[in-house]
Amino acid sequence: MENEVVSKNFIEQIIEKDLAEGHCDAVCTRFPPEPNGYLHIGHAKSILLNYGLAQKYNGKFNMRFDDTNPTKEKSEFVESIKADIQWLGADWEDRLFFASDYFGQMYEAAVKLIKKGKAYVCDLTAEQIREYRGTLTEPGKNSPYRDRSVEENLELFENMKNGVYQDGEKVLRAKIDMASPNINMRDPIIYRVAHMHHHRTGDAWCIYPMYDFAHPIEDAIEGVTHSICTLEFEDHRPLYDWVVRELEYEQPPKQIEFAKLYLTNVVTGKRYIKKMVEDGIVDGWDDPRLVSIAALKRRGYTPESIKMFVELCGVSKAQSSVDYAMLEYCIREDLKLKKPRVMAALDPVKLIIDNYPEGQIEYLDVDNNLENEDLGKRKVPFCRELYIDREDFMEEPPKKYFRLFPGNEVRLMGAYFVKCVSYEKDADGKITEIHCTYDPETKCGTGFTGRKVKGTIHWVAAPTALKAEVRLYENIIDEEQGVYNKEDGSLNLNPNSLEIRQCFVEPSLADAKAYDSFQFVRQGYFCVDAKDSRPDALVFNRIVSLKSSFRLPK
Ligand code: ATP
Ligand code: MG
After folding, report:
1. Residues 6+ apart with CB under 8 A from 9
2. pTM score over 0.90
3. Which UniProt keyword terms apply here (predicted)?
4. Which residues surround ligand 2, an ion (CB under 5 A)?
5. Mean pLDDT, rounded, for 138-150
């Protein structure tokens, strides 16, 4: 007996019902970004959800730029969005669409509504329209232009298209119900005059459709069956359904809403990110402290880790906020067995082995990943002068400090036991050199069992070490204060969100390329920065540290 427990999210339940009842034969979903900024982790959720559903039900996934609003759109964003979606692994095959390609059909759709007596040209000003609209508690009033004849409306709408009017002089409105309890249904504007240049259609149009009118048409034209969007559109669904119904599409698409993904104490809003970019607080939309997809990629996140994260978050109707630590958990899980574990001294201090022959270098065989033998071994040079991390030595250790201190013996990872015999300081009291002796009997891998040590520390051989810059990150937001300043709405920034260190890494990293990532033992996972790293001047971003208090919810 199969005893499979499958929990389906509510969208899957709707789709399966629609398939079973014959409302559609095959599933078609879409991702419809507005090309007015870079995509972020929230969009990744929507992309992977839509693509995942198409895959699961053997359907299609369309990519469509919702470029009906010419003011804010830029081709730069079109390219970044395409690259990000491809990187995430969502494949639209040959179905890359632009809503602006449907302007002709949208115009015809508006004409159809006029002919059915379901749309009219209105001369009220924006302010009057607002006044006539009523409030949540009071119904609206009919526009004095509501009862224009079909002929007059057709002529005026054509004039709108032909550039006879100034911006704002006339609009086309759906004729629905000014007394509807849903304000979206009170004769919403469906076309406006806007003498604006469009990034794809140029100056061909001086009227542009409104989102609520355009979106269902785009979906219907493409044969989208399930138009998945976020909760703020729930109140717009009656209008979506009205448009689809009045235009008499044979395969009416269905709108389904789910809750947006929010990360606690993390900024996703385009407006704020744009400001941080413009103010030079971050070094672009892909600054590794951000959660745009480009930033996550640059930081060293993988598509697999983002997919795991999105799946853990689940799909729901209830607004909630997820901890960033969960994203960190996912990248650790993803990299754990895949990446080599190498040594780096992030805050280097010299360690000299007094009894090791000067000028000698021996090559030790070190496992690349103790948990995954398939990654093999590498040769790591060892010699008399090494770098270790400053925090692995203390002059006066507290209790339970098992690392290096005068008189104490530790294991150098993959190498020998060393015992601290002396150290030197500069005038400021800063440790400049640590002197040790080593015991040749204790070489790693020889089965030495003579005695035990409690601490193991990492190291890098000084003469062959590579200089590298590492960038250590904290949240760009000051978590104590929360994201937004209560007084002026600005962001509460953490002044310590970026720490740059000059460090030494082992020579096996000499050929590391952009986006390559590694575990630096005991320090975390690091990724070669794609923007600033050079073969002779490596730059690494810390993706995530190794430790976490995060536990998967049961
Ligand atoms: P933002 O204002 O955060 O940049 P947006 O909603 O303006 O987002 P669009 O380009 O309009 O961005 O969105 C494209 C798609 O991504 C829409 O279907 C939208 O519902 C979805 N989306 C946007 N933000 C999120 C989020 N935080 N979680 C899940 N889906 C999202
Ligand atoms: Mg938007």
Report:
1. 314, 315, 316
2. yes
3. Ligase
4. 34
5. 97
